Amino acid sequence: MRKLKAILGVLLLWFLCSTILRSCRANNLVCNEKEKRALLSFKHALLDPANQLSSWSIKEDCCGWRGVHCSNVTARVLKLELADMNLGGQISPALLELEFLDHLDLSSKDFRGSPIPSFLGSMGSLRYLDLSYAGFGGLVPHQLGNLSTLRHLDLGGYNRLYVENLGWISHLAFLKYLGMNRVDLHREVHWLESVSMFPSLSELHLSNCELDSNMTSSLGYDNFTSLTVLDLSENKINQEMPNWLFNLSSLAFLLLSENQFKGQIPESLGHFKYLEYVDLSSNSFHGPIPTSIGNLSSLRAFVLYDTGLNGTLPTSMGCLSNLMFLALGHDSLTGAVSEAHFTTLSKLESVQISETSLFFNVKSNWTPPFQLQYLLISSCKMGPKFPAWLQTQKSLSYLDFSRSGIEDTAPNWFWKFASYIDQIHLSNNRISGDLTQVVLNNTIIDLSSNWFSGRLPRLSPNVVLLNIANNSFSGPISPFMCQKMNGTSQLEVLDISINALSGELSDCWMHWQSLAHINIGSNNLSGKIPNSMGSLVGLKALSLHNNSFYGDVPSSLENCKVLGLINLSDNKFSGIIPRWIVERTTLMVIHLRSNKFNGIIPPQICQLSSLIVLDFADNSLSGEIPKCLNNFSAMAAGPIRGQYDIRYDALEADYDYESYMESLVLDIKGRESEYREILQYVRAIDLSSNNLSGSIPVEIFSLSGLQFLNLSRNHLTGRIPEKVGVMASLESLDLSRNHLSGEIPQSIINLTFLSHLDLSYNNFSGRIPSSTQLQSFDALDFFGNPELCGAPLLKNCTENEDPNPRDENGDGFERSWFYIGMATGFIVSFWGVCGALLCKRAWRHAYFKFLDNINDRVYLATVLKLSWLRYHFRRYRISK
């Protein structure tokens, strides 16, 4: 035994000495000169705007260069890890000189859609190749199949690569990780057979690859034996979940979201004993959640949002003792959510249940076994009582009870409890309470559309977003605006609109320097805009609509250089339109409707190329419409849905888990409509109810993206330009109550989206152009034009107006018989009913008894409604 210990001691000493010796040798070694030159050639082909490769100098040892890793024994280059560098340009073939390189990471670069170099397939020593999000495009080279020792391959990214045939991948026999997210694979019919040839494959990422329903292959039990991660999300797979999927016994992560999977989720889902993460959201399943989910003892995250499932929530869910994240909703699930569903869920940290018919039914004294950090129960029945169990959650950082059916007074403990929560969303309930003495300390606060009352609450400097719109707050606004804080305010969004606030705006805006979005519309405010509002240099949106402000718009607002939306409508502002407004090129929305502005429309307005909504209606503007409105390029091109534009930051403020959107009420198609989520897609010009004169500029009809045009109630003359037919997106056109003349242009029939048209009370003449669409409008839309004829007007066009007296509805003889038949039908129908009642006494009594019953019901409903209103009115007066 002693000899064995002695031998082991000698061997250990030899190992330590040899390690130290090798380390010492390595310290004296420098990188291979040939490899240094190759790396410098590689560097010269790259674009390095931030000079992040500054350490790559010929005077320095390349083993010490940033991102270069060498062998401790031979000093040969083994790894290039450049993932954290902002590089572009081209990849030099000089990399082939690095014959021992086994790890190449060029992810997160910008190679501007250039193809992946095929020579990379000749780097036979590579075991790790990461080209994800590197900006490559085009065909994936089949030469990559020559990298027979490769263990890790990631080609995913935003630029669309594509593959025509995946046969080359079968040569990568040792592959453990394959990432091809966003690589177009739809040309490869046998993609499943190609990627299932590797028993050693551990992770397969094929998200957003345009995959279809070719998942029905009969894979053997030996395929995918090591697979732990399967990501097929964001594809077009339209079939039931394949049977082979449930043979993947080692699977830990299953992501099938945003496909078109159908059928029921099999009970065999519960056989995955190692499964930790399941995301089946955004599919087309039906049937209930399988009860076997209670067997998923390793499950940590369960996401079933928008799956199409129905039925009740299985109580077996309460057995998922390791569950940390639960997301349900936007489905047809019904029934109660009770304590039984959370019995052993002590590790639960996040619950998201929204847009579902599920309702919470727990005891008032329930103490949950979990401590949540994130709680979202929105558009799901939680009330009517405020949940008392909420106060047991001491770790909560996010709370969303919006649209949860709560009709209760916020309990006294809530506001102290809530002061430790980062974000609070309680909108669209009927929660009441006086907030006069409350100090709000949260970063994001949305209490909009409730019954809160009292004076405006005080704020801590931490608040970034405050939305308390559509409540019953009252009293002067000055104490709120001029409140003193222990620190600099971080408030960026302030929405206190649709309340009963009064008084004038105090000159305290210099204390709110971080404000970017202000909405104090629809209150009882008055006075002038204070000059200090111009100190808000970061202001992006200003809404003061529907108040009683008056006077000139202060020139100090000219300092708001990034203003994108200004809404001063429905006030008493006067004077000329300030020149700075029409010269603020960042403006997208100008809404000055219903004020007392006079003078002309400044021609400088044509500089506003980003303008999408221009509303000067109901003022006293005069002069001609500027002829340069075709410079509104955002209206000429129209919106591109789904495409982000940084200019829209003025209409929306994004925060973690929260997005505040500006809203705008526009008079469209003769009725007021509120636009919020789709405001950025609206294109509208309204100059109605002014004193504008002259002709309609032909240039305005170059705005092919314009959707709503209203020039009514002015003194415009001349003709409608023939170019009107070019406005392909036009939905509403109102030129009524002007002095326009001439014929209606034939090209108007090209406006296929037109659903509202009013040309009444002008001096148009001739025949109304014939089209199914135009003749579907009401005759009132053309009324008041004595010389106008043709359908839908009853006035026929004479032979002098048209050589063919027949119109598309037939000649006058046929129309006469139409009216004769209509009159005869009315007489027969009328006397058929009334005559029977006169002749049949029993029928007559039954009919009048029916009317008496209806009368009694209406009377009873009216009395009950009035009693209800009187009761609530008295209750409201008592609470005041």
TrEMBL record:
Top-rank taxon, per record: Eukaryota
Compartment(s) where it occurs, according to its Swiss-Prot or TrEMBL record: Cell membrane
Domain Leucine-rich repeat-containing N-terminal plant-type span(s) in chain numbering: 33-71
Transmembrane segment boundaries: 817-839
Domain Disease resistance R13L4/SHOC-2-like LRR: 190-401
Keyword Signal belongs to the record: yes
Annotated keywords: Cell membrane, Glycoprotein, Leucine-rich repeat, Membrane, Receptor, Repeat, Signal, Transmembrane, Transmembrane helix
Family membership noted in the UniProt record: Belongs to the RLP family.
Protein name: Leucine-rich repeat-containing N-terminal plant-type domain-containing protein
Source organism: Vitis rotundifolia
